[in-house]
Design brief:
The chain has 410 residues and is mainly alpha-helical. The chain has one domain. Helices cover 72% and strands 4% of the residues. A four-stranded mixed sheet has the order 1-2-4-3. Helix 14 runs antiparallel to helix 16. It comes from Halalkalibaculum roseum. Belongs to the peptidase M48 family. This is M48 family metallopeptidase. Its main location: endoplasmic reticulum.
């Protein structure tokens, strides 16, 4: 095995071990006693369920990641990448279509392997804890729609990237960067009106006290309300959430119907104030800018390593190709991606604190705190996650830290 193979194998091992250690620490940190802050919201049985939910999901996650790593290593060292390459090349489809077929088959293979785990998670674990509302028909249709979107949107993008690196030499990475950036912005723009409605119904929030209170708050903070929508989240799960999506005239705030059902008007306004805080603090634009920069760096490095013979030898390939190089470089890039992911999680947690502060200083603290407590209970959140697990995996700060920060705000 050459240096490329050693780096990739070491990265896979380190990533697996770090996440395993974090999972084990997280389960050990489960507090047997209910934190005093939540005594008014949780009862002992609900708290016990939240801890059991964390344990079950953690064990299942360890099983899933172990299986995925084992399959990858077996496929790799059995020469599977080269075996598939020889089959696809024999079809004589041309450089671009061969690449699409090769990558498409790998994605389909991974999707099929992950299907039993997805079914078990949805219809056994989520069902056991009372969350699942997904019917088999909805599950299948979601999968079909997801694959269809992947073909319709991802296919042309992949073809373009393959074409740039196949037929253009020196500045291929710049063209690919530009194409992916344009594609990302385009999807962000059309997602609220064209993509997301394929999976959920979005109805404008009806006139009434809640809409009036939201409008009054939006006027107070000088936020133009293009659209507030209620999403039928209960179609798939009883969990609650709210999110901000799109930009320009297509930006909208979506509230799960389960969120509206379980929270008071003041709590809902506080949740919306948090989402508006993300917009006011320019978190969405900042995240997008960082993502675009990351993509540029990735394509620049890809252009450096794409034609390295050793990268292909590490996977026992008989020949070089752009499409296989994309797969192998993605694995070589994993150490950088791992570091960037931890950094982005840190920034995301900072943004959540800022949005909480915005909401609590421009609206009210107590409704925001009550909303966080109810969300934690309704979603059976882990109230005492281990700091190392938070460091690796959390895009939001633990709820107790958020509540303490809100109390200090202003």
């Amino acid at each position: 095995m050459n240096i490329f193979g050693i780096i990739i194998l070491a990265t896979l091992a380190v990533d697996f071990i770090l996440n395993l250690v974090a999972d084990l620490y997280n389960m050990k940190s489960l507090d047997k006693g209910l934190p005093d802050e939540f005594a008014e919201v949780y009862d002992e049985e609900t708290y016990r369920q939240s801890q059991e939910y964390t344990k079950v999901n953690t064990r299942f996650g360890i099983l899933t990641s172990t299986f995925n790593l084992a399959v990858l290593l077996i496929f790799w060292f059995a020469g599977g990448f080269n075996w598939l390459d020889q089959i696809v090349r024999s079809w004589e489809l041309g450089a671009i279509w061969t690449g699409i077929a090769y990558i498409g088959i790998l994605i389909l293979f991974k999707t099929i392997l992950s299907l039993p785990f997805s079914i078990y998670s949805t219809f056994v674990i989520e069902e056991r804890f009372g969350f699942n509302k997904t019917t088999p028909k909805t599950f299948v249709m979601d999968m079909v729609k997801g694959l269809g979107l992947g073909v319709l949107l991802g296919g042309p993008l992949l073809a373009g990237i393959l074409a740039f690196f196949t037929f253009i030499d020196q500045y291929a990475w710049l063209y690919a960067w530009g194409a992916v950036t344009a594609f990302t912005l385009f999807v962000q723009f059309i997602a609220p009106t064209w993509i997301m409605p394929l999976f959920n119904d979005f109805e404008p929030l009806e006139d009434g006290d809640l809409r009036q209170k939201i409008r009054e708050y939006a006027d107070k903070v000088n936020f133009a309300l293009e659209g507030i929508y209620v999403m039928d989240g209960s179609k798939r799960s009883s969990k609650s959430n709210a999110f901000f999506t799109g930009f320009g005239k297509n930006k909208r705030i979506a509230l799960y119907d389960t969120l509206i059902e379980n929270h008071s008007d003041e709590e809902l306004v506080a949740v919306l104030a948090h989402e508006i805080g993300h917009y006011k603090k320019k978190h969405i634009i900042k995240n997008m800018a960082v993502s675009i920069l990351q993509t540029g760096i990735m394509f620049l490095l890809l252009s450096v390593f794409l034609h390295s013979q050793g990268l292909y030898e590490a996977f026992y390939m008989e020949g070089q190709s752009v499409y296989a190089g994309l797969i192998f470089f993605g694995m070589l890039y994993a150490p950088i991606d791992m570091i960037l992911s931890v950094f982005m999680q840190l920034i995301s947690r900072k943004y959540e604190f800022e949005a909480d502060e915005f909401a609590s200083t421009t609206y009210k603290k107590e409704p925001m705190i009550h909303a966080l407590k109810k969300l934690s209970k309704d979603n059976l959140s882990n109230l005492t996650p281990h700091p190392f697990y938070v460091f690796l995996n959390y895009s939001h700060p633990p709820v107790l830290q958020r509540i303490k920060a809100i109390r200090r705000a202003g």
